[in-house]
Amino acid sequence: MSDLIAEIAVNAPLKQLFSYQIPEVLQQRICVGTRVRVPFGRRSSVGFVVEIRTGAVDGLKAVKELLDEHPLLNPELIRLLRWAADYYCHPIGQVIRSALPAGLGSEKATTRIQFETVYRSLPVVEEPGGKKQRELLAYVRQQESAGLTQLRATFPAPHATLKRLVELGFLESAEQERQRDPFLLEPLPKDKSLTLNSEQSDAVCELSSAIEACAFKSFLLHGVTGSGKTEVYLRTVAVCLDLQRQALVLVPEIALTPQLVARFRARFEPAGHTLAVLHSGLSDGERYDAWRMIARGEVQIVIGARSAIFAPLQHLGLIVVDEEHETSYKQAEGFRYNARDLALVRGQQQGCPVLLGSATPSLGSYYRSQQGAMTYLALRKRVHAGAMPAVELVDLAEQPPEGVLSNRLTEALQQALERREQALLLLNRRGFAPFLLCTDCGTSFHCPNCEITLTFHQRERQLRCHYCDYKEPPAEVCPKCQGLNIVPEGAGTERLEQELTELFPGARIARMDRDTTSRKGAHQRLVNQMLAREVDILVGTQMIAKGHDFSGVGLVGVLGADSILNLPDFRAAERSFSLLTQVAGRAGRATGGGKVLIQTFNPEHFALSCAVEQDYAEFYRQEIPFRQELGYPPCGHLINLVLAGNNGSQVKASAERLAAELLCQVQGVDVLGPSPCPLARLRGKSRYQILLKAIERPALRSLLTRIDAAKKHVCKGVGLVIDVDPVDMF
Ligand code: ADP
Ligand code: ZN
Fold it and tell me: Which domains, from first to last, does the chain contain?
């Protein structure tokens, strides 16, 4: 008997699709992309229809139930996901699941209408007594009415104060259907009308013709910080909308790029376009609503981080990837895709141009533009003031500092304070000190689960593991020699903040790192304080190097620049160059010029000297021969196999057998290792890695097809992770 068969991706860690018969009653309603329930083994499972064909149905089980009336995924998206599952060697069911908003992969989806309390100010002239009450009231008055969610994002624990204000008759409250994402309720800035400079208009011109051609073409927009890249995105998105097509804009992290989102909204919302912003602050329900709106074609622009690459837009006209060099585009666990790379694949599949933008392009993208595989567009000048900041290295070997700050940097800070300029200090390590040390016997304190020293956090008086979050109180007595001389060694942002407070008692100092921004809205508050010039010196981790347009910053200082340079990673130089150039670009955005001081023990290193000159081309010229010689990306391709398990010797033996099995299987692939991972123990598991390296990708792909068979050499209890195009190899 020949009939309709559905090929279904089941939510299970299995690579293959499963065939099911489609019962008569469902034949009209099932299509590619719909969610169904199917019998699976002894249970039933949720799956997605990825293909429908005719064939012999004998012996096939039937689809049990259709879960949604409308498909959640369109055929173009299914195509992208199937491609990704194959390329990243990950089970298709799980790939689909991670592409969807949380909850949709398994449960029956429900749109939830949410209610919340909304506060309105009443016409009362006098002021309430408490400071907190006054602040809250002023905020509500300014907004006219404000929902609880929004208030919570701006004020910590506002509940009691609100209640009091209602009792006192300053506010009234009502239950209302929650309609909009609280994130979008922030006051909208005015759109600036600008005349493009010649470099910008050349770029827009080239991009416009590609958008009008409605065909795939890839572009690298290489523009120094403050050169007006965002304005180029805005103009090209406008071209795309004029053609009744939609635009997808990827950013590394929404929370760190509120200004970009605001500029898009200011430009396009007044013209009646609808934006969807997909960010991590959305609840599952909100995410689901946004997803459905996009799928129904009601949204013209989607802005989101990594996973927005799977947004179900039907008529894509342009994909923009901002800060394309950012490693956060790569998912670090589970389905380890790279959204930047998938953007290029999606553009190819759906026939639309893809624009990658950065002040410091990844070596890979620049390489491809050099090879002619990508069109190179450059913005060489800053829009305002013109001058790039003057960057200077401070050689720590020549003038070792007493504390964390060198004399040179201390002087520069003093001058900046006198000139009423703000300063940014980057130290890429949070906590007070990276370890505690017994100065009598040299004992330091390690995480019991990970091979890493515990970071000392002074405010909480805790030793913490930054990988697994293990915590213990700091020892007062050395457990080994009973000595009492236990001191914090090295410096983190907390210590730097303290040192600054002692050095500059009059200055207003703030800190921005994962510890101070974990509370909702905390990051935005710090940004607002910086913008309002309520902070003189902002200390922070690389978080402060991202995206912000702090116009008052005249001085940028970098401490611990060497910590990234010394990482055991072939991209260490690239990372350092990129971070230093980005953070240097935060100086003198409005005033022009500005000063950047980088403290280092490696003043001779080309990554640093090129960052001093802000010379990307020179950095590339010096770095690429290393990659070529070693066959590392972008001159070759990598797959990292990571084995991890509780039993160290089993992990090692499995890794050895797997490597031996893979060795000599395919010509043109180097099998390196096994060797212990740089983090040889993590969260209680021992870890080994095998690196597969090839100049030609097909050779590597062909070896990948044999991994499944070779897996039998891996012991039970040892996990194997296949990381295609790894960006982080710890
Ligand atoms: P980038 O994204 O490259 O860092 P932005 O697009 O944020 O740079 O531009 C920096 C600043 O210059 C912004 O305040 C922007 O509004 C302004 N700007 C951009 N293009 C122009 C222009 N053609 N004329 C005047 N101001 C501009
Ligand atoms: Zn740990």
Answer: 2-99 (3.40.1440.60), 114-178 (1.10.10), 198-384 (3.40.50.300), 386-432+491-626 (3.40.50.300), 637-724 (3.30.70.600)
Digit-coded pLDDT (tens) for 246-296: 999 999 987 777 778 889 999 998 888 999 998 777 777 778 888 888 988
Taking Cα atoms as reference points, which of 188, 183, 120 lies closest to residue 149?
183
Of all ligands present, the nearest one to the C-alpha of 384 is 1
How far apart CA 519 and CA 534 sit, in angstroms, is 20
Cα distances from 699 to residues 84, 86, 669, in angstroms, run: 18, 15, 6
Query: Which residue lies with its CA nearest to atom 9 of ligand 1?
Result: 228
Residue 20 banded pLDDT, cuts 50, 70, 90: very high
- Edge-to-edge order in the sheet of strand 637-645: 669-682, 685-694, 637-645, 718-724
Q: Convert the pLDDT of each residue in 421-477 to its tens digit.
A: 999 999 999 999 988 999 999 999 999 988 888 999 998 899 999 888 899 999 889
Contact 366, 620 (CB under 8 A): yes
CB 546 within 8 A of CB 257: yes
Q: What is the DSSP letter of 444?
A: B
Helix or strand or coil: residue 587?
A: coil
Q: Spell out a b/e string for 637-671, using b for 16 or more CB atoms within 10 Å of the CB, else e.
A: bbbbbbbbbeeeebbbbbbbbbbebbeeebeebeb
Do the beta carbons of residue 679 and residue 450 sit within 8 Å?
A: yes
Q: Are strands 435-438 and 486-489 parallel, antiparallel or unpaired?
A: antiparallel
According to the model, what pLDDT value does residue 409 have?
A: 95
Whole-number Å distance, alpha carbon 236 to ligand 1 midpoint, is 15
* CB 614 less than 6 A from any atom of ligand 1: no
Largest CA distance in the chain: 87
Q: Which atom of ligand 1 is nearest to the CA of 263?
A: 16
Q: In what order do the strands lie in the sheet with 246-250?
A: 275-278, 301-304, 246-250, 316-321, 354-358, 218-223, 375-379
| Nearest one of 411, 471, 422 to 445, comparing CA atoms | 471
Residues with Cβ within 8 Å of 518's Cβ and at least 6 positions away in sequence, in order, are none
Model confidence at 1, in pLDDT bands (50, 70, 90)?
Answer: low
- Secondary structure class of 274 (helix, strand, coil): coil
Question: What order do you get walking across the sheet with 595-600 strand by strand?
Answer: 390-395, 595-600, 553-559, 422-427, 537-540, 509-512
- Residue where the block lists tokens 């990381």: 723
Going by alpha carbons, the residue nearest to atom 23 of ligand 1 is 196
Of 383, 531, 551, the residue with max ligand 1 atoms within 8 A of its CB, to mutate for a pocket test, comes to 383
Q: Which two tokens stand for residue 17?
A: 């699709």
List, as one string, the DSSP characters of 486-539. Answer: EEEES--HHHHHHHHHHH-TTS-EEEESTTTS-STTHHHHHHHHHHTT--SEEE
How does pLDDT run across 531-551, given as a tens digit for each residue?
A: 899 999 999 998 887 757 788
Per-residue pLDDT reduced to its tens digit, 671-692: 998 999 988 999 999 999 999 9
Residues around the ion ligand 2 (C-beta < 5 A):
447, 449-450, 465, 467-468, 470
Check if 689 has its Cβ closer than 6 Å to any atom of ligand 1: no
Q: Which ligand is nearest to the CA of 195?
A: 1
Which two structure tokens, joined as six digits, stand for 593?
Answer: 């010029």
* pLDDT of amino acid 225: 81
Between CA 267 and CA 271 the distance in angstroms is: 8
